[in-house]
Amino acid sequence: MARRRRGLPVDGVLLLDKPRGVSSNHALQRARRLFQAQKAGHTGTLDPMATGLLPVLFGEATKFSAYLLEADKVYRTRVELGVLTDSGDAEGEVLERRSIPALSAADLEGVLARFTGEIDQVPPMHSALKHQGRKLYELAREGKTVTRAARRVTVYDARLLAFEGTAFEMEVHVSKGTYIRTLAEDIGLALGCGAHISALRRLKTGPFEGAGMVTPEALEALPDQAALEAMLLPVDVLVAGLPRLALDAQAAGRLRHGQTARLDTGELPVDGLARLYHDEAFLGLGVVRAAGEIAPRRLLSTAVAAGSA
């Protein structure tokens, strides 16, 4: 007999405002307990020092987490000049202090411009990447350093928000896999004085804006389960960028049984993914093939209420 999963079958996406000083997993588990959810996951770890947008996926939404893991992100960060730390942030041990050259905002903007576009970035030791099965930050805590290959990332925009002579704030729009700590360190080296970050806040992940975030404290103040679930976005917002396809009962039934179905695909691309719906309920994803054939790709265990995308 299959083991019964504890909790409620909650499905949806929560835009959680992660507080400073806790891990992403701690924030996730706090939200999961509040919702009494059977299953939950998050998309894209934030360091304990960082705050801001942490999309938490409940239930069937977890099947589509990859679409946010691949997404671009926007951050706001404060960069302290003249001090290098072992972690690249204010929580690390100070390695070196350097004098800060006389800089203007124009000087700083010129350097930021050099770090936009495609750049090569060496991942920090204080990261969750793995080396021979162990996370880099675990090795770093033991005082170990291993060689890391540079990775190509994209900085779409790096905009100076404020400059105080010894520190500055910037907003950056980056591709997946970009480490803001490392970006700040590299900018500091280019300025000739080194740097680390003292604050980091994620403002956007893929299609999700920070304006929709809710804090754990605000969730705890809600009166009941219905009020909590009213804070969730529907599952299909995770794949809203894909074409939408409405199915009749026969086609929906075939796909749910793992079979292909034929129908007029209209303007849908051949060999492309599509969002599948029946009676306005989201069923999951299918792949459109030639001659109007659709095959199941990632379907929900049960249809869930759809959004307006």
Automatic annotation (TrEMBL):
Pseudouridine synthase II N-terminal domain residues: 32-180
HAMAP family on file: TruB_bact (MF_01080)
Family affiliation: Belongs to the pseudouridine synthase TruB family. Type 1 subfamily.
Lineage of source species: Bacteria, Pseudomonadati, Pseudomonadota, Gammaproteobacteria, Oceanospirillales
CDD domains recorded: PseudoU_synth_EcTruB (cd02573), PUA_TruB_bacterial (cd21152)
Record protein name field: tRNA pseudouridine synthase B
The protein's Enzyme Commission number: 5.4.99.25
Location of the active site: D47
Domain (tRNA pseudouridine synthase II TruB subfamily 1 C-terminal) ranges: 243-300
Xref: Pfam families: TruB-C_2, TruB_C_2, TruB_N
Function description: Responsible for synthesis of pseudouridine from uracil-55 in the psi GC loop of transfer RNAs.
Example of a GO biological process term: tRNA pseudouridine synthesis
N-terminal signal peptide: none
Keyword tRNA processing belongs to the record: yes
Keyword tRNA processing found: yes
All residue ranges annotated as the tRNA pseudouridylate synthase B C-terminal domain in the record: 181-239
Reaction(s) catalysed (UniProt annotation): uridine(55) in tRNA = pseudouridine(55) in tRNA
Molecular-function GO terms, alphabetical: RNA binding; tRNA pseudouridine(55) synthase activity
Native source organism of the sequence: Halomonas stenophila
Keywords, in A-Z order: Isomerase, tRNA processing
